[in-house]
Structure formats: C-alpha cells, structure tokens
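Help needed: design a sequence for this.
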C-alpha cells in the first residue's frame, strides 16, 4: 500500500544564490532551514560528471514543510536556461510558482526595484470559483512567479510578511490538456480538483501578455491537481488554445537554470513504484537510495511527464 502525500519542494536551479535568497528571505520574510552541500548520490542520480559540485539552501515560510523552495547552485559545469525568454504559453518544464501576498500592487512596485518585471500591470481576475488580484512577474534565471491576493472568497494572511506564503500552487503549460490529465490521473494517481477556462470577450490587457488584438481568439483551459486531494499544495496544467509558443522540453534537466523539478513525498514508495511499472509508466530514474538533507537517507525515483516536467518521488527512511 502507498499514500501520496504532497509536493514537498520545488527545486530551483539558480545562477546567483545570494540574490535569490535575498528576494525570498531578506525581502519576503521566508526562512532558510539549512545550507547544504549536495550529496554525491544526488549528483550521480542526475548523471552529472564527478567534477560537478553543488550547494543548496532550503527555504520555507515559517515551519510549513510542504511547498518549500530548494535553491541549488551548480559549480564547474556549463548551464543553459530551462525556459529562456519565456512566455506563459511556451511548453516544457514548470512555467511558474504561485505565492500569496497581502497587496499585489505594492509587491509589484517593490520587486521591480529588485530586478523583476511584470508581464502586465496587476489585474483583477476570475479563475473558476475565485476572484483575485494577480500578477505574473519574470525574475531571476528567467523564472515566472505569480503573486496573488484572493478577494473572493476572502483569505486572511499572516501579518508582518511581504510574502506570507509557501508555494501553494504552480503552473505547467502543455500542448494537449487531455493527454496531460490522463497522465496525472490515470498514470500517477493524482487527484483532479477543479477545471475551468479563461477567455476574454473583448480586446483588453491580460496577465499572460498575449497581444491585445489576439486575446479574444485565445482560450486558456486549466485543470488543477494535487497529490493528496487537498488544496494545501496544488499545481495547475494549462493549455493555451489559439496561440503556439516555443518548446523547452529538451532543456529540462540538471544542471540547467530555472525551476527544475517537483520533489514529492510518498508513503510506501516502493509499492508506488511497482504500481507505476504495472501501468507501463516510463520510469526516468530507477528506485534507489539518495542522501538529501535535512531528511538524511531517502528512497527515490523519478518520472517525466509528456511535456517534460520532472517528478521526483521520495520517502524518508528515518
């Protein structure tokens, strides 16, 4: 028997560790749980040469373990950007992570001074059952972060933080939403939480930076999932019908820079691994032991989605 628990971490490969840490912690108020040297077992897991090393910082909001951010800085190796000069409708890898903020307009003004820039100005959006202020901002290593303030239903946030949030959601852009849903539900066994679509009925500014004269012809179809059926840490898969972007699928691999992979916790990992083999899932990295701090020794394996999102599954041994 096995139990799918949560997305424990989003792993973010960075070019400048200090700059990214300052944004999340110095500005946002998140905490560094620990500083680690990447264990050789992990570097070997990703087929990196013996001379390659890496250092890591694990970042959380308060003590919220799920939805953490792990920064990793690779050394002695050439790197490319995973989603270089990206647009939201480009496919391949993780498109964005979502963080809650108390005031989107203030965040927008603040972090432009830190080198971020918006794909639009802050806009009031309707996303399925939710009404929220939302802004997509491109930051370090060409990643996109969605900053949100939910208006309806209201959501009270902890006071005293610029970013009072773990990674509660993130987005994956795909060419074929039906194929992706089949993979996540019928292969990986994740829970479908919600499905909706976003379509503008007039030529207006939009959060995705789709040209105003094209926006009426584009429909963003969205399915939302989680591992455990709750909304604590979710992810959403998006298909942009009516616009075709670039394909970054061949860039999604360590040591490239950007949002690298999801690291997920499973109870009964070996049983889960065997269940995926039975449904002919394509295993990317076979079941093996790794050392990942602060967890110590873990069992792990990985798969890659049809649009080249790396899903690494772990179970803590001790």
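Sure. Designed sequence:
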């Amino acid at each position: 028997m096995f139990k799918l628990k949560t997305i424990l971490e989003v792993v973010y490969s960075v070019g400048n560790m200090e700059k990214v840490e300052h944004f999340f912690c110095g500005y946002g108020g998140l905490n560094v749980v620990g500083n680690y040297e990447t264990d050789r077992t992990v570097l070997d897991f990703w087929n990196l040469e013996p001379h390659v090393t890496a250092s890591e910082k694990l970042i959380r909001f308060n003590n919220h373990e799920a939805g953490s951010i792990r920064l990793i800085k690779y050394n002695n190796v050439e790197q490319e950007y995973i989603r270089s000069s990206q647009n939201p409708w480009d496919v391949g890898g993780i498109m964005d992570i979502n963080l809650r903020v108390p005031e989107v307009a203030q965040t927008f003004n603040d972090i432009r001074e830190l080198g971020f820039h918006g794909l639009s100005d802050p806009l009031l959006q309707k996303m399925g059952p939710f009404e929220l202020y939302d802004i997509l901002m491109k930051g370090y290593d060409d990643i996109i972060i969605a900053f949100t303030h939910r208006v309806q239903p209201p959501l009270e946030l902890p006071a005293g933080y610029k970013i009072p949030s773990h990674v509660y959601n993130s987005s994956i852009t795909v060419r074929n939403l039906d194929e992706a849903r089949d993979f996540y539900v019928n292969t990986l066994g994740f829970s479908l939480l919600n499905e909706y679509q976003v379509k503008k009925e007039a030529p207006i500014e939009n959060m995705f930076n789709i040209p105003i004269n094209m926006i009426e012809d584009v429909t963003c179809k969205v399915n939302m999932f989680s591992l455990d059926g709750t909304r604590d840490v979710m992810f959403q898969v998006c298909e942009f019908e009516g616009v075709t972007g670039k394909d970054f699928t061949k860039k999604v691999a360590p040591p490239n820079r950007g949002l690298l992979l999801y690291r997920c916790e499973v109870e009964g990992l070996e049983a889960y691994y065997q269940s995926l083999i039975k449904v002919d899932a394509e295993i990317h990295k076979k079941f093996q032991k790794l050392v990942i701090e602060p967890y110590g020794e873990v069992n792990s394996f990985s798969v890659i989605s049809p649009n080249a999102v790396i899903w690494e599954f772990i179970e803590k041994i001790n």
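The chain has five helices and 17 strands.
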